[in-house]
Amino acid sequence: MKVLVTVKEVGEADDDFEIEGTDIASSDLEYDLNEWDDYAIEAAVQLAEAGIAEEVVAVTIGPERAEETIRMALAKGADRAVRVWDDAFEGTFADVSSKVDVFEAVVDEEEPELVLSGVQAADTAFGATGVALAERIGFDHAAVVNDLDLDADAGVANVHRELEGGIEELTEVDLPAVLTVQTGLNEPRYASLRGIRQAQRKEIAATDLADLGLTPADVESTLTLTEMYEPESDSDAELIEGDAGEAAGRLAEVLREKGVGA
Amino acid sequence: MSDVLVVSEHRRGELRDVSFELLTAGRELADALGGDLHVGVVAGDVERFADDLNRPGVDRIHAVANGEEFDHTVYTAAVEALVDRIDPAAVLTPNSVNGLDYAPAVAERLDLPLVADVLGFEYDADDGLTVTREMYGSKVETAVAVEGDRFCLTLRGGEFVPAEGVGDAEIEPVEIEAPESGARVKGFEEVGGGDVDIADADVLVSVGRGIGEEENLELVEELADALGATLSSSRPIVDNGWLPKNRQVGQSGKVVTPDVYIAVGISGAVQHVAGMKGSDTIVAINTDPNAPIFDIADYGIVGDLFDVVPELVAEFE
Ligand SMILES: Cc1cc2nc3c(=O)[nH]c(=O)nc-3n(C[C@H](O)[C@H](O)[C@H](O)COP(=O)(O)OP(=O)(O)OC[C@H]3O[C@@H](n4cnc5c(N)ncnc54)[C@H](O)[C@@H]3O)c2cc1C
Ligand SMILES: Nc1ncnc2c1ncn2[C@@H]1O[C@H](COP(=O)(O)O)[C@@H](O)[C@H]1O
Question: pLDDT (tens digit, 9 = 90+) per residue, A207-248?
């Protein structure tokens, strides 16, 4: 079977950052592969290594900069990648449904039997894309999967869904399916030097909306980011000043007052 | 088309707290829209749940008695049927693990704009709906304007006061035909037993990704020993296999309420905070002055744990 993995490049704010307009200044963001997608890639590559998946294709919606991230997915073992971008996305806050428009078109083209995506994107944290995609393309799905046993012959994925409070739901999902992958599902590998070298030769198909038979109107977002600001802290925390020794000394005092270490 | 539909949540025979928070949020939104508040309760002992959900401000409760536990196929079909009946402007669901398993499908099927993990909202007839939510690991807050006059929101738990008291809602059984589910729940498993129960500890030293490497755990173990505290952690430490699952604090781990909670190299992600915000005294040691953990801390040291922790150990030796 073919496995499609959605892979997002996410920005992480530096300790000191400025907000420019409605986003953090790009010079104050470190870009990286979304943590949850790292686990999804690993799951797909393990399926390939087990002889269950014939091909692992990574797909991203992102500007040229995102090639670095998708290259990382290739270095870890994805066979090839599709990067979708269009001027229409520039400067917008894409809603779930417009991303699903894109992924649906890619699914039509690639015809995967399994789509793996992350539980959430670390930066925007919607936690919605995988399940919305499943609904659109008529696959079944499971969200927040932290254990996966794929039985290709029976056509099912046996998964654990990690609920709140240390309870897991054991569920059997019919294939084709979309699973949203939770961290801890596996141990994501580091890209090897050999992997990184091989990744240079793997294909990243740069694709725009027209290539997918879509128009900018299809992906018009219903959401607009109108403001971004640092949250007002209503904390009355005592910030302990001084060098490490002084700070530790003051904290020790506080802790002793609370009866700690007595 | 100015009503609000709230979808409640229960698990293994109990309504979850977030259901009552949703009633408060739902009432607020219904007032802003000038409509009624409808509550959907799906699967399980719906009659008992409906009685419990009948709190002041609720106008009508729709009880859909299909199945026992959560099943996304049933939930999606039920919400679709209720939306058909009620024609609401807004559908509100919890931003819970099960919420993540059906709300995006509902929004997609009904072609509603979706905003997830919402902290608050404002509505007025001229400007429509604007919601507040966080981004970048809670380092920033944003306002998001939603186009159109219908929408689906998933609400973060713990942001609204749960509705209390007894109301006078009409309770109505609803029959729906749900298609056969392609995702069948086979059972549940409780994880994370083991040697210690971190929920019993009076003092917790809790370690996060700031520790960097597994070898460095020794440092926080020494601190826990020196303080007579128990060692707990954030999720990545458990994901990496450095500590067993029973040490994890948070939404998918344990909820703890010790006298003193010392967060070392933990950013304070919402799913972590959900498990420890009830601690009496919270101490945070973190290099990043903007780390959200400082917003809920009582005492904070902005500093490198590799400098501070050894000094703190020395203080107690
Ligand atoms: C459905 C779901 C459920 C989840 N459940 C849980 C849960 O139960 N528990 C949980 O914890 N998380 C949970 N998470 C994950 C959560 O979103 C965060 O990813 C996680 O809490 C981050 O852990 P952290 O703070 O250790 O790591 P990070 O967010 O990476 O933070 C590390 C911190 O260490 C600081 N730091 C770095 N170096 C140093 C140094 N030398 N000295 C001092 N400070 C330093 C950094 O400034 C940073 O603030 C869940 C996520 C999802 C989607
Ligand atoms: N722009 C994107 N490119 C590729 N994958 C994405 C993108 N946005 C979301 N995803 C996928 O959807 C998952 C959930 O993201 P979200 O619903 O935005 O929190 C992520 O872990 C990714 O796998």
Answer: 999 999 999 999 999 999 999 999 887 778 899 999 999 999
Which of A161, A183, A185 is the best mutation target for the ligand 1 pocket, counting ligand atoms within 8 Å of the beta carbon and taking the most? A183
Short-list B100, B41, B190, B69, CA closest to A141: B100
Nearest ligand, measured from the Cα of B274: 1
- Which pTM value belongs to this model? 0.97
Query: Which of B71, B254, B271, B290 is best to mutate for the A interface (most A CBs within 10 A)?
Result: B290
Distance B233 CA to ligand 1 centre (A): 9
User: What ipTM describes this predicted complex?
Assistant: 0.97
Would you say B40 and B7 are in contact if contact means Cβ atoms under 8 Å apart? yes
Is B243 part of a structural domain of the chain? yes
B236: CATH? 3.40.50.1220
Which ligand is closest to the CA of B116, given by its number? 2
Task: Name the residue among B245, B232, B237 with its Cα closest to residue B214.
Answer: B237
Range of the domain at B74: 4-173
CB contact under 8 A, A237 and B299: yes
Is position B303 within any domain?
Answer: yes
